[in-house]
Amino acid sequence: MWAQLVESGIFDGVIDIPESDWIFDYKELEDETPSRLKNIAFQDEILKRMKGVLFIFNSCKQLRLSRSIALTAATLLHRFYMLEDLKTYHYYEVSATSIFVACKAEECRRNLKDVVKICCRIATGKNESIDEDDKLYWRWKDIIVRLEQLMLQRLNFDVTPINPYKITLNALMIEAEPSVIISPNKQWESQARAIFQHCTYIFELFSRLPLCLLFSTQCICALTILLSAKKSGCTFPPNYIGDKLEVSVNDIISCHQIFIRMAMFTNVLEKHYRILHLLPPASSEELGKLYEGTEDSSLYKQE
């Protein structure tokens, strides 16, 4: 898989790339990325990726963009760094470009000048706004325009990854917004919505690390739902998660364990960068029981 990506240079074709083509082995991520070839240590790469994603969410908040846009941008960043290295392309610059590309891909347009001004100000740590007469503005504009073309080419124009929110909402059988029609199953509606609200927070945590390069979106959604259900004190009917998301409990547990392994790298940083203390604690056994479900579930299937 990795050898094929390297040999392809800029891919031929522009459409219909299966998500599986963006799934790598942990060993490939650990040993064979372009950054490793430039003598950037694995831990250093993980931390820089994380800082790039934090930059994305901070910038999206300033730009009044949704978390969905931020998740798309984070995925683009992680994929980009499987093809290019962190020494040549700084993570702030790639993050800013990822936001701009994600806005176009999700049809949530923001003017280039607005993206430039916000991202430049955050990256440089300036308190005052950046105007179009500033040399920094033009430098950052040129960077984003140039990197946008490179990113589109290197990612083979595959810039609309599967949306985890949609998968999670479908799995929980709820709409994005509460319906004005009274639900026939109020217990399910209220508890499933509480689970989903916490899922949005966990998705942000997961996106800080390149979990999307190692597991399918369905697997990540399944783990997110189980962790959110544990925090909420909810349980599911028997086999509910497996039936809805078609993912095995072994894959979910592996996803959880690898995330924890990568998140441990953040313990060397200041507390506001660390991740593990923000994740609901759960053992493999607890995840297995939640996955199996129970007949006396706190949630029950809608007829």
Automatic annotation (TrEMBL):
Q: What range(s) does the Cyclin-like domain occupy?
A: 54-153
Q: Biological process GO terms, please?
A: regulation of transcription by RNA polymerase II
Keyword line: Cyclin
Q: InterPro entries in the record, alphabetically?
A: Cyclin-like_dom, Cyclin-like_sf, Cyclin/Ssn8, Cyclin_N
- Superkingdom per UniProt: Eukaryota
Is Transport one of the keywords? no
Q: Please name the GO terms that the record assigns under molecular function.
A: cyclin-dependent protein serine/threonine kinase regulator activity
What family classification does the UniProt entry report for this protein? Answer: Belongs to the cyclin family.
The name of this protein is Cyclin-like domain-containing protein
